[in-house]
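Batch manifest line 331
LIGAND: adenosine-5'-triphosphate
JOB: complex structure
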Amino acid sequence: MLKIAIDLGTSSTKIYEIGSGIVLHEPSCVAVNAETKQVKAIGNEAKALVGKTAEFTSIVFPVFEGEIVNHAMAVVMLDAFLSKIGIKSGRGRVEVLFCVPCGISDKAKSSVYNVCDDLGISHLHFVEVPYLSALGQDLPISDSNPAFVIDVGAGTTNIAVLSLDGIIAGASLNIGGSNMDVHIIDHVAEHFGLKIGSLTSERLKNTVGSLAEGDNQSTVVNGRDITTGRPRSVAVSSSDISYPVRVYIDKVLEYVGMILKKLPAEVSASICKSGVHLSGGVSKLVGLGEYVEQKLDMEAHVCDEPQMAVILGAGRAIGNPATLKKIKMEF
Ligand SMILES: Nc1ncnc2c1ncn2[C@@H]1O[C@H](COP(=O)(O)OP(=O)(O)OP(=O)(O)O)[C@@H](O)[C@H]1O
Ligand SMILES: [Mg+2]
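JOB STATUS: finished
ARTIFACT:
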C-alpha cells in the first residue's frame, strides 16, 4: 500500500512519499477568478501572482493560522498537488498521515477529515506537529526521555514538552512568520514612507531579518512612495526591521515561560540538560538560537533543515507502524 504524509501548512504544503522522500513543497495558495470562480493557478504559480493580479483575480490561502478556512479551495489545491505527484486515482488505497497543530480542536480535525473525504482518502491518521518535529530532528525521545520542541511556522507556533508516552505540556499559538510580514509592511511605511507588498516584505524578513545583535545586513526593496505615489526603492537593514521580527519571538517566549512553569520537576531537570529544539521556517532567522538560549537560559538547537523537520518526521512515522501507533491521535 502506498504511504504518504501531508503537512498542509499556512504558507506551504509539503508531501512525503515512502520510498521517495519529500516529493512536493509548494505554497498553499490558489489564484481564482472572483467572478467566474475559475481556478487560474495553484501553488508556485499562484504565489508568484500575489499582489500583482487585476481586480477580478483573488489569491486564496485555504489555510489560516494552521486551520483549513476554505474547504473548497483546500480540496482543489490538494487534488492538484496529489495529481502532480502521480496520485490521481485509487486514493482509497493510500495510507495518509496528516500533520496537525498541537491540541487541534474537534472542529478543525473535522475540517481536515472532510477535505480528505472529498479527495477520496479514507485511510487517515492524525499526528500532532511536536511529535513530528522531534522525530524529524532525530531526537532520542522515549517514554522516560522527554524532548522540548518549538516549531515556528507561518501562521502557528507549536510548543511542547513530550515523551513517547504523550505530550506533557504543550500548545499551539496563532503566531508565526506571517505576523512579522504584516508588521514589517506597516513598519516600512511608517519609517520610510514606502508601501511594500507582502511578497517583498516576506523576502525582506527572510534575507535580512535577524535577532543577532549588531547584525546590519541590508537589501534594496521596491515599493510605492506613499506621498508621491511613484515607484521608489530604499535600502532596508536588519536593525530597521528587528522590532517587527523580535516582538513575535518575544510573545512566543512569554508563552513558553508559562508552559515551562507547569512541568513536573523531573521533566524540568531532564530538558534543562537536553535544551530546546527549534524547527519551522522561521527558525532559519539569523541569531534565533542564541536569542532563545539567552532568554530561556538553556541550550537551543536549530536543525539543518528546520522548515522540513515536521514533514521528515511525518515520513518516518508513516514508515514505522509501531511509532505511529504510539503517537497518532484518536478520532
Ligand atoms: N530565512 C528565513 N528567515 C525567516 N523566516 C523564514 C525564512 N525562510 C522561511 N521563513 C518563513 O517561514 C515560514 C514558513 O515556514 P513553514 O513552512 O514551517 O510554515 P508552514 O508550515 O507553512 O505554516 P504553519 O506551520 O504555521 O501552518 C514563512 O513565514 C516564511 O516566510
Ligand atoms: Mg508548519
